[in-house]
Design brief:
Strand content: 15-25%
Distance between the termini: 21 Å
Largest sheet: 6 strands, antiparallel
Structural class: alpha+beta
Number of strands: 12
Shape: flat
Length: about 290
């Protein structure tokens, strides 16, 4: 939705990363202490402070990576920081915000420590991130016009914004190339997510696997991949920007506990299809071309 709105409003998207994300948020209300290790002792003394006696603990004054409350504390603190600048979260997607910045309609998205700001110009994005810096102990790392965000490739042109999973698919497909990737047949024309001949489709939709774990282990050894891992890799691509593999992915996921051999074959075919069509994605067209990209 964020990319669709940005294209419809003819905006550009600029990224940023918070360097010390959880430590910006306040500490949990319940006291939290740690016993410093050797490296901390050395750092403490290097700061010109008196040594900490052995066996002592120190209070943690900020949220800390690994503490179960830290994500919630950061989310709450970050939300208030954004609202300070008169940006309002949407009702059903609280990580998406809309507001006026320097008189221009802009949009903001946060995913933990990764930010995206959709604005008419780079100048406005820099001004907004400068304003956020005033709340932080360390400056936000600017990433310029976004090309990759949390595993999603983003292409911004005068005419459209395109999202795809090309980088993810290339990394995912590389590990299969030497094992079995070349063995799975594909049509000479544009490939399809699943073989379409009637015999295969009928068996694919009717087959039920064996619940015996040894049966799955045998099939995984024969086909050289973990079934649930393969399905999981398909699911990520499907939910981000590859709805064309939804049918085969959902069907294979329904048999995660008891896949038949034909389900292994379908996962293999779908993975090779993704590799062959890795440049495919979703295009969000601008209403009018931008003067510059």
């Amino acid at each position: 939705m964020f990319y669709a709105i940005s294209a419809a409003e003819n905006l550009l998207i600029f990224g940023a990363d918070v360097c010390n994300v959880f430590s910006e948020a306040p500490a949990p209300k319940q006291g939290f202490y740690i016993q410093p290790d050797h490296a901390f002792h050395e750092w403490w003394i290097h700061q010109g402070r008196d040594p900490i006696p052995e066996g002592y603990v120190i209070p943690v004054m900020r949220a800390m990576q690994g503490h179960p409350e830290s994500p919630r504390l950061w989310e709450k603190w970050c939300d208030q920081m954004i609202k300070t600048h008169n940006f309002t979260p949407t009702t059903h997607e609280p990580c998406l915000y809309t507001g006026l910045w320097q008189g221009e309609k802009c949009y903001f998205k946060r995913q933990v420590d990764d930010f995206e700001f959709a604005a008419p110009s780079n100048k406005l994005a820099h001004m907004f991130y400068d304003a956020l810096d005033d709340h932080l102990t360390m400056p936000i790392k600017r990433q310029g016009m976004v090309t990759l965000f949390n595993g999603i490739d983003i292409q911004q042109t005068r005419h459209y914004i395109k999202i795809s999973a090309e980088t993810y698919i290339e990394k995912m497909g590389t590990k299969y190339l030497e094992m079995w990737h070349k063995e799975v047949p594909m049509t000479a024309e544009r490939p399809l997510p699943v073989p379409t001949h009637e015999t295969f489709l009928k068996a694919f939709h009717q087959a039920e696997g064996d619940n015996n774990p040894n049966t799955m282990a045998t099939l995984q050894q024969r086909y050289h991949f973990g079934y649930r891992n393969g399905v999981g890799e398909l699911i990520y691509a499907m939910v981000t920007c590859r709805p064309d593999i939804s049918t085969v992915t959902v069907k294979c996921a329904q048999h995660s506990a008891n896949p038949a051999e034909i389900h292994f074959q379908a996962v293999k075919h779908a993975i090779k299809y993704l590799v062959a069509t890795r440049k495919d994605g979703i295009y969000f067209w601008r209403v009018t071309p931008r003067r510059s990209s």
